[in-house]
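Hi V.,

Quick status before I head out on leave. The structure for the redesign project is tokenized and pasted below; the design run finished overnight.
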């Protein structure tokens, strides 16, 4: 166990870590202060983005988006979280990605635009 310090509020706590840097990061991320909660939210937001649009997209039957688009989405998530944007929807690779806020949570939704119409 190593003692780490929250980078936001300076609170010290012992955590399982290899070095001080890792301990500080762990304590900051799990701290009970407001900024710690914000850190957790950002982390979760990035994880969700990675799931639906990044390296885990295929597990959700989606294709990862291009890196530039990924960076843009990351920025949009932050702006939605800050309530600078209420809701945003973009169309990428026959899918629609919608980001909005609901009950303090940032909702990331990706929908396939598969619509088949056959005529004879
Ligand atoms: Zn803190």
């Amino acid at each position: 166990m190593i003692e780490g310090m929250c980078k936001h509020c300076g609170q010290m706590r012992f955590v399982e870590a290899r070095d001080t840097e890792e301990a500080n990061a762990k304590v900051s991320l799990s701290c009970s202060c407001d900024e710690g909660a914000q850190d957790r939210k950002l982390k979760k937001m990035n994880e969700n983005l990675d799931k639906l649009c990044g390296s885990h997209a295929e597990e959700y039957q989606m294709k990862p988006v291009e890196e530039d688009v990924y960076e843009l989405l990351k920025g949009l998530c932050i702006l939605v979280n800050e309530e600078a944007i209420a809701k945003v929807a973009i169309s990428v690779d026959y899918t629609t990605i919608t980001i909005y806020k609901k009950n303090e949570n940032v909702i990331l939704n990706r929908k396939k635009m598969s619509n088949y119409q056959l005529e004879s």
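Above is the designed sequence. The pocket of zinc ion is lined by residues 6, 8-9, 11, 31, 33, 36 (CB under 6 Å).

G. will cover questions while I'm gone.

Best,
W.
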